[in-house]
UniProtKB/TrEMBL annotation:
Keyword Transferase: yes
Subcellular location: Cell membrane
Keywords: Cell membrane, Glycosyltransferase, Membrane, Transferase
Domain Glycosyltransferase 2-like, chain residue ranges per copy: 12-175
Record Gene3D superfamilies: Spore Coat Polysaccharide Biosynthesis Protein SpsA, Chain A
GO molecular function: glycosyltransferase activity
GO cellular component, one term: plasma membrane
Name of protein: Glycosyltransferase 2-like domain-containing protein
């Protein structure tokens, strides 16, 4: 084993950001608390105009920083930029503001299952909104989304939302990472392509909590409509209908 391999972190946490000064520290804190884990934390900035980059530099190991006035063309590109700085065996993509239930246990379970199942190349979690934001109709609709994602992974179609995606570095490189030309569903596309070289799964009994703001602002009918038209455009045309997909809690 070379010195580089000996010092290689087990997990590279990658947080794609754009003007996230209010949420970034809160997202990083649980990652840094994993003292038992060999890790690195990477923030990939998409061209923030607030204090996001300055905060990141105080907290994390590596920051992908853009030139003044430069903006990312998609969150897929942002995630790829973060991955380009990573050296871990596993890439752990987590969106800013997302909180994972029993986070240390989730990380341990991911590592355990990945070690046991050599053909497993991607893991995601179930999704919920923050408890203080989640309504009854939200719970029903999220159940539909979680069930669909879980079943797609079981039958090797592959699916995940970008809130949480854990991928073997070797598999990520083999498929060429995220498709940067997709505004959405770049997250589903990644897991679909991963299923061509291995297996993906939803890790049950663990929940990633995120903001309901966009869903409440736009409404579920519009959100499901956007999902569907972009999905069919992706399947039949290989590209998105949407020209922009903003962060969860941004106007």
């Amino acid at each position: 084993m070379t010195e580089i391999e000996k010092n290689r972190p087990l997990i590279s946490f990658i947080i794609p950001v754009l003007n996230e000064e209010k949420n970034l520290a809160e997202t990083i804190r649980p990652l840094k608390s994993l003292d038992w884990l060999s890790k690195e934390i990477i923030v990939a900035d998409g061209g923030s105009t607030d204090q996001t980059v300055a905060i990141a530099k105080k907290w994390v190991d590596k920051v992908y920083e853009r030139k003044p006035g430069e903006r990312n063309k998609s969150i897929a590109e942002n995630r790829n930029k973060g991955a380009s700085l990573a050296t871990g065996q596993y890439l752990f993509f987590i969106d800013c503001g997302v909180k994972i239930q029993r986070f240390p246990d989730f990380v341990r379970e991911v590592l355990k299952i990945m070690a046991e199942k050599s053909k497993l190349v991607g893991i995601t979690s179930e999704l919920r909104f923050y408890p203080e934001e989640e309504s009854r109709i939200d719970r029903v609709n999220l159940w539909v989304i979680n069930t669909t994602i879980t079943n797609f992974n079981k039958i090797r179609l592959g699916a995940a939302m970008g809130w949480v995606q854990v991928v073997r570095m070797s598999a990520f490189k083999k498929i060429g990472g995220y498709n940067e030309d997709l505004i959405t569903p770049e997250d589903v596309d990644l897991f679909r392509r991963l299923n061509k070289i291995g297996r993906t799964m939803t890790l049950k009994n663990f929940v990633a909590y995120g903001s309901a703001e966009r869903y409440h602002r736009e409404g579920w009918p519009k959100m499901f409509g956007l999902f569907l038209i972009n999905w069919f455009s992706y399947i039949f045309r290989g590209k998105s209908i949407s020209k922009e997909w903003k962060p969860m809690d941004k106007e």
